[in-house]
Each structure stands twice: as C-alpha cells, then as structure tokens.
Predict the structure.
Amino acid sequence: MDNRQENGSVLIGGRTTVKRTSEREVTATRIFDAPPRIVFKAWTKPELFMRWWVPKSLGVPLRSCEMDVRTGGTYRLEFGNDAGSSWAFFGTYIEVVPPSRLVWTNDEGESDGAISTVTFVEDGGRTLLTFSEVYPTKEALDESLGGIEGTPEQFEQLDELLATLGAGRA
C-alpha cells in the first residue's frame, strides 16, 4: 500500500507509518506486540538483527553483521551474494540507552550520512517504535528516500521474529 498525501508525507504498509517530517528528516512508526526489552534485543543482537533487517524482496542477503552496541561502539553490515559483489554500511553508536533508545551515524557516504535514531516506548506490554533519519541536507534525503520504502517489509519481518521469540501477544 502506498498512499501519498499532499503535504509530502507518505503512508506505507499497513501497520507501519512512514512520513517525511521535515525537509531533512524521515520517520517510521509502528507498534510491536512485544515489550521494549525484547524489541531492543532484536535491534542489538547480531544473530537476531540478521534475521529481519534486510527486506526479503531485495533479494540480497546480509552476509555479515558486526555490532558493538555501546556508546562509541561501531557497526558494520555487509550485503551481497558473494565477496566480489558485496557492499557495506557502517558507523558509530552515538547513544545507547537500553532498552529505550539507539542513535548511530551512517558513515559510508562522505558528508551525506544520516543520523539514525530508534526509540522504544512501553505501551501496555507492547512497544511503540519510532525510527527516524536526519540528513545533513534536503538533497541528501531526496537521494536516499528509496531505501525507506523497505521499512514496512523490514518491520513485518521483525514482527515475525518477535513471534518466534515468544514475544507476541496471544
């Protein structure tokens, strides 16, 4: 589902809302049927993160996932079908507040990297998750908007993972 509104915001994918909140920021929100500590774990444990992060429709696997999830720690995600055709995303964790907040840099570009923030808010045993990316310029956000379209699929995959962890509500 893709509903474009006059104000430039975009609502995509059923339970996930994705919208451009300013000329430099895009935000996705969703409620997950699991407590924040479990959802936070799925964002911070490499063996769990690898199971949901890449939209299956992309057709490219996440080959490796290195995460040192602490303030000042780094991450590196490598995508591709083989070593010869792979590419990486990497950066540094600016803020880590378990189980409520993660903030990291996206350093693979020169100066066009976004700052990503995800918050996990308790909501009656569920988690209201807000994921946002703030770019240095309007143009940098304009160039990267294609990537945000995969967020609803990623969040569906996260829902599926949470259910396997016994986190879903009956």
